[in-house]
Amino acid sequence: MTELAIQVEARRRRAALMGPALLAAVGLLAAPGGAAADDERVRSLRSELAHLEARLAGLEARRRLPVPAAALTGGSQPKSWKLPGTNTSMRIGGYVKLDLIVNLNAISTSSSLDDGSRVARAPIDGTPAARRQGNVRLHARQSRVFIRTWTPTEWGRLDTRIEGDFFGAGGNQLISNSNAFRLRHAYGRLGPVLAGQTYSNLFQGYGYAETVETGSPGGKIFGRQGQILYTHRIGQATRLAVSVENPETGSTTGPGAEIVALGGIPGGQVVGSTLGANDPMPFFAIHLNHRHPKGAFGAVIGLRRLHIDDGAGVDEAALGWVVQLAGRHTFNRRLTVGGNVFVGKGFGRGISHWDTSAVLRPAPAATARLRTVLGVGGSVWAQMRWTPTLRSNVIYSRSFIDIAGAAGGKAALPEGAGLNRDLWRGIVNLIWSPVGSAVDFGVEYAHGFRGTINGTNGKLHRIQAAMRVRF
């Protein structure tokens, strides 16, 4: 309460307390009686007034007492509070989400692997896997929690964030459906400099569609990793960000291998470390974006160095790069459209559902050459708000991967390897938010297509419903 408010309140209380006393005084003076009686009444009235003044002084003193250091007060950010005894604001938040997934055709032998649709591994038509019946799954693995802080300093505002969910490995469905906690974000930001793990600087969330499933629909750049990021603001609406990020070469086998090796390697696909894949340099990213009242648009450029050194004669490197444009625009209070388009070589790890980055041909041999794989793709979407609480999204994404071109022709690639050539998905959903942003109900259908270099195809059919409650 301000000093002025305290004074006003004190005067109000004084009037309330002294009013009856003054009325009593008037009554006493007007009442009949002798001089001695009058003197006694005056002394009594003065004693009562002194008592009331003492009480009033005590009330005013208590009103002016400082707020205890341990008391919680509102912070500088929405839903935050000040840590007692500091100028740091803190917030704890997140959400609880239940997903109901119906895979109309099973993708893997483990239902937990189907929690995120993997169109790149959809079963090939005519195979036993494609003839399997689908699978139903209910889980709360995507539930997440975060802690954020904001502290003003002479160097600018200091922000921190730690966030995780339960979408990690481990767990089973036998007793408690437990799953490992997974780190999503952990960083500190002082003024324009960020250090820690968060979304790659190549991530353009403002150009991506809203989905019920986590990580879909594909045809976009996505990733969270360790980095040092510097952001420079150009005016109020434009931002230029430059980052140095973790360069880790993928090391999965099968259709998801990042390095395809030809000659001398059974199956032609290997774990990266088997070939001596290493990362002597970080990868670099530049992100320029502009926000305006009806949307946002921007461009990103990424550069990386792929390197193979097995210590036995194979020592090859190649430059990987990617460029992406993305944006969204709101035409009116009902319709918003957006999308993205990318092109790159040697950047398979950064593109959702695009696995292979390079081909080593032939290998292993002193004459081996590392050739990066060309990839192009993108997505387009539209969101329609039927009412203030009900909306739909229609999304189409596609990507093309030219592994055969990097290998020197389709004939050079191993038969039956299941290497992908073409991936696309169509998604439609309906999302209802009955109490603002606190609660979402959603249902979504996704159809995916996978084409391989051998001319075989696979399909994905998936329905997902969810309830999400934020706190």
What's the overall geometry?
Answer: elongated
How big is the Rg? Answer: 33 Å
Which regions contain 5 or more consecutive residues with pLDDT less than 50?
Answer: 1-6, 21-26
CATH architecture of the largest domain: Beta Barrel
Total domain units: 2
CATH topology name of the largest domain, in short, is Porin
Helix content, binned percent: 10-25%
**What is the terminal-to-terminal distance?**
30 Å
CATH class descriptor of the largest domain: Mainly Beta
Strand order of the largest sheet: 2-4-5-6-7-8-9-12-13-14-15-18-19-20-21-22
Number of helices, where a helix is a run of at least 4 consecutive DSSP H or I residues: 4
How would you name the CATH homologous superfamily of the largest domain? Porin
Element order: H for helix, E for strand: HHEEHEEEEEEEEEEEEEEEEEHEEE
As a percent range, the share of strand residues is: 35-45%
Number of strands: 22
Q: Quickly give the structural class.
A: mainly beta
**Largest sheet features:** 16 strands, antiparallel, barrel
Average predicted confidence as pLDDT = 83
Keywords:
471 residues, mainly beta, Porin, 2 domains, 16-stranded antiparallel β-barrel, three-stranded mixed β-sheet, 4 helices, 14% helix, elongated, disordered N terminus
